[in-house]
């Protein structure tokens, strides 16, 4: 009896975990991946940092493996939930997150260089789903149907743009210029359309529930990623990259000057809080490249500030997550996967 | 009515009593029962009629007086009147100087027959004064003039929501009051000069300043050297601009000190807020057009000082666009928003002229990103957008300003008039031509000071053409440059004549500024008003009539409707 009940509870736990692990959890993997990439670039020339980089990278890899496994199991056992996610205007963008995370892990691997054959193969394995998702989602934006842009545009749509730009950056590292420019232009064109649409904000209410306000940080993640991608394509941090970086900096300042926007979202800890981390990391990375190019006091000050902020935020989030294991393991039933409660579902608490 | 009367009676000590002129003398005695009080809630026309009739009898109120009954439109209002005193139509200084404390809790005797209007202290404008006139009283205290007693700050003046501006005002510059709307300041009297002085007065210095730059370019550019233009014209114009800017700045500073509430309301006005960039743009023009006799180069810290306010304004306004809420772009977009974009581009141009590198690129990038958004939005002429005039109005010339300044700025940043600059310049030229051929449609508009800001784009295109003809020197470009300069100069001259005529002959250069005096609530009687103004609806519903009271309800995000106090 006891064994039975413990088995049962094991099963319950497993069920709960699987039902609650939606694509938004990949935010953790995204944040860790970008951190790993950031530190790899910062400490590129220092031999002694190699062990540190390896530890960081391995940690990120393990988290990503765990999340991917869980999500795979979820795909197998709860495919309906995946379909629900796909049809939700916020959830659909997080379907890019696993591919972006794997691309980042690939790029930040300490022992793999872009010219490796394995890199190339893995890049193709990861980039093709991104393009497929692009075709599906961007096609929906401008063709007939219910999911046209003004109906579904919301800040998390930036994630699709970031996906294209990360793919472009990785491709240019491999030396594949045309593919890289292809992905870059794809991302930028849709970024332009999305940027204008989001600024116009046709419908009165926000399509983003209050709890998901941290996702607003994606507003400045996309131009920073564009800046990095263009840097990789053109070879130096030229005016185009600078302009994207400055735009990103401006949007960042604009958001942190408005703490009231995020007050309601900060009431309870939430997986959405992880959305604070990776945009800051991307911006820090772009500022590093900028400081390398310009090399004056102000640039270095900005870079140091952003680096410090990014490390602080990710440490804070790791601690918070460690102290809230109920994120994944709470046996209390999560809100059902009823479409109307999906927004709360995505925030997982 | 009876119910309301009862309500009122319960709420206040019995104040309702018909009075005749004879009872005026016993007016100030502490007899609650004998005090009529006609409070002026801001938006009830019924009372205005009474007030107007009372106003006409200024000389001691000896004429026959009809019943003045206080009838608040709702119990809520009665409560409001209890707790807050709506002071702007209070009785005169004369009444209060007796120092009588009215025991009616908060409900003062307002608009009772006014025996004598004290010429200095017309208290109807108190609500607009800084700290409700406390500063005024302090100053008059210092001067030794007897003052009135303190009044509690009217709490009505919180954030005026943007839909009130759209509801209450109309016209391409959102400055004309709709027929059914009421304002909280007296309509029939000319307001104090400072209250009538709008921020768009800075446009004059904008217009003249851009002329100064144009004449500087004409005299110094190699492409137009055949004209042999004297640099003294630039000097004279620059001095005039400097003097004008100083004057306007001083007057507006005084307005900010004495009538801060009015300045706040201008800031919340969706069109006027863009003119808060105008002072800084004018300073940029002064720096750009500085004659060589006065200064050859300017110190770099000056640029940082000039750009700091623009950065703050950018963060505020563009942030509002981004975070949505009431002031999102699809609702408030109007051609005057180009001024904010032009501010960024001018800053970039100035910085590049001073030799800075990174800062100009920063402002250029920010300006460019937001210009794209604005440009698309305005070109769409969204049905949900109220402020685009259906007929052409000189404000449309602002469309030409942004690409021409962007072109000049990019040329300065890059060091040469390259493809990027040329693309922007040709866009500006195209827009200019497409407006110029429609010049017939620009007729029939009421002159306003803001028209000066529309000359600045014409001059801007002329300046860019001069730079372009420097890069591509041939007969055609030189002729184009000269023609555009002539057109710009003639326009400015015509505008100057118009301004002088309005100032001196007609005397209405500064009419009562209705736009800042709109009430917070709609007038109660809605049955006789026209179709309501703004509607915050889904695009698919724009053709239906929508009561603007329900404009906060959003069809699409039914779970998450925006609250009236949402992020602004």
Automatic annotation (TrEMBL), chain A:
Q: Which GO terms describe its cellular component?
A: endomembrane system; plasma membrane
Membrane-spanning ranges: 24-42, 48-73, 94-113, 119-139, 179-199, 211-231, 243-261, 273-292, 304-323
Annotated GO biological processes are:
monoatomic ion transport
Superkingdom as given in the UniProt entry: Eukaryota
The subcellular localization recorded is: Cell membrane; Endomembrane system
Which Pfam families does this entry report, sorted A to Z? Answer: SLAC1 (PF03595)
Q: How does it sit in the membrane?
A: Multi-pass membrane protein
Alphabetically ordered keywords of this record: Cell membrane, Ion transport, Membrane, Transmembrane, Transmembrane helix, Transport
Main subcellular location: membrane
Q: Does the UniProt entry include the keyword Transmembrane? A: yes
Subunit description = Homotrimer.
Could you tell me what this protein does?
Answer: Slow, weak voltage-dependent S-type anion efflux channel involved in maintenance of anion homeostasis.
Identify its protein family. Answer: Belongs to the SLAC1 S-type anion channel family.
Query: What is this protein called in UniProt?
Result: S-type anion channel SLAH4-like
Q: What's the source species for this entry?
A: Salvia divinorum
Automatic annotation (TrEMBL), chain B:
Annotated segments matching region Disordered: 56-119
Q: What keywords appear on the UniProt entry?
A: Cell membrane, Ion transport, Membrane, Transmembrane, Transmembrane helix, Transport
From the UniProt record, give one GO term of the biological process aspect: monoatomic ion transport
List, alphabetically, the Pfam families matched. SLAC1 (PF03595)
Where composition is biased (Polar residues), the residues are 80-90
Q: Name one GO cellular component term.
A: plasma membrane
Keyword Transcription regulation carried by entry: no
Locations listed in the record: Cell membrane; Endomembrane system
Quote the InterPro entries the UniProt record gives. Answer: SLAC/SLAH, SLAC1/Mae1/Ssu1/TehA, Voltage-dep_anion_channel_sf
Entry's transmembrane regions: 193-215, 235-254, 275-295, 301-319, 361-380, 392-411, 423-443, 449-468, 480-505
Designated name of the protein: S-type anion channel SLAH3-like
**Species of the source:** Salvia divinorum (Maria pastora)
